Amino acid sequence: MPGTRIPLYAKERIMMLHKKGKNFCEISRDLHMSECPVSRQSISKFIKWSSGDLKMLLPFKGQTYNPKRVLTMEHYEYIDCEMAKNDELCAVDLCKMLQRQFFLKVSEATVKRARKKLGWIKSGPKYFQLVKEKNRVARLTFCQKANNSNDNFSNVIFTDESSIWMESHAKICFRRIGELPKHKPKVKHPYKIHVWAGISTRGATDILLFTGIMRKEFYVDKILRGQLLPFISECFPEGNYRFQQDNDPKHKSHLAIEFLAKEKIIYWPTPPESPDLNPIEMVWHEMKHYLRKYAKPKSKAELEQGIYNFWATMTPAKCAKYIGHLRKVVPEVIKRDGRASGY
Q: Where is the Tc1-like transposase DDE domain positioned along the sequence (predicted)?
């Protein structure tokens, strides 16, 4: 439908100005001043649509108006309204709803054409983390503080753990036309290994591989004492750094907090439910993609070697590029009032 891409508040503004006798150019200028640019053509089509001109339902060239058309204006408005309520309705669902509501039996193809004319197209959803209200406020405060101080995160050590499964196939593949789909075996219970590491603008820490459950004693002894302290001594000898990690229970245990205080590690707590504020999450994503597509491990030794080979590419410049991504994330979190940024 012409005008469906116009925001709701803009539609109301258009109709109000039209009733006042404003022409299309004047309405367009008013919307531009309100930071909602809409072309004169779109305004014209929307007003004609709102006035009930069924010819505006035919946006395709070469198509003629048929007064005996199965779907009327009322049917189009019903489809548009139901799609706005539930954007996961398929053509079969809409056919049943039209039959139940209007006793009208139409084909799926007719409904699909109508839905397309109304501006609805099929696309995959973009998923991101749901943030609780109390954590939303904490995220917003955190990002506002970073934004107001022009923090570039150049002295932050971002750390995290991740689980890596042994996979030897990428998510997509290609085949020639006429060939049968390729068979690629998948293990039901693949071998799994855990990794811990950190990145900063001065480079990456050594990566630690381990299996089993990571308990608080292991975390303090093997990770904080064995990995983090040597990295701080080597890369931040002057002590101008901040240590960042998520809110895993092991990270916040009394044993871990006492160790951080005893060793005078400058711990920088981050808000819960904030993977988008820790750039090492993107490193894990790239590592898993590398293992599936290029390393293709088929044994424990090959998986471990593939992880080490990838980690060897984590230069200071590459780490700084990941951390620089926060310059996009922080303003977006503020713009979304503390909700997930989508990055």
A: 156-303
Q: Residue 89: is its pLDDT beyond 90?
A: yes
Provide the residue ranges of all domains of the chain, joining segments of one domain with +: 8-49+70-118, 133-171+189-336
Structure token digits, residue 283:
């490193």
Q: Would you say 43 and 17 are in contact if contact means Cβ atoms under 8 Å apart?
A: no
pLDDT of 265 > 50? The answer is: yes
Record the tokens describing residue 196, joined without a space. Answer: 């811990």
Question: Where does residue 100 rank: exposed (0-12), middle (13-18), buried (19+ CB within 10 A)?
Answer: exposed
Interatomic CA distance for residues 3 and 14, integer angstroms: 11
The domain defined by 133-171+189-336 folds into: Nucleotidyltransferase; domain 5 (3.30.420)
Predicted pLDDT at 69:
57
Kind of pairing between the strands at 156-165 and 242-244: parallel
Convert the pLDDT of each residue in 114-154 to its tens digit. Answer: 999 898 988 887 777 788 999 999 999 999 999 999 989 99
163 three-state secondary structure? strand
Task: Give tens-digit pLDDT for 1-41.
Answer: 444 467 776 787 788 888 887 888 788 888 877 767 788 77
Please work out, in degrees rounded to the nearest 5, the angle formed at the alpha carbon of residue 192 by the alpha carbons of 191 and 193.
130
Alpha-carbon span 38 to 27, nearest angstrom: 9
DSSP code at position 155: T
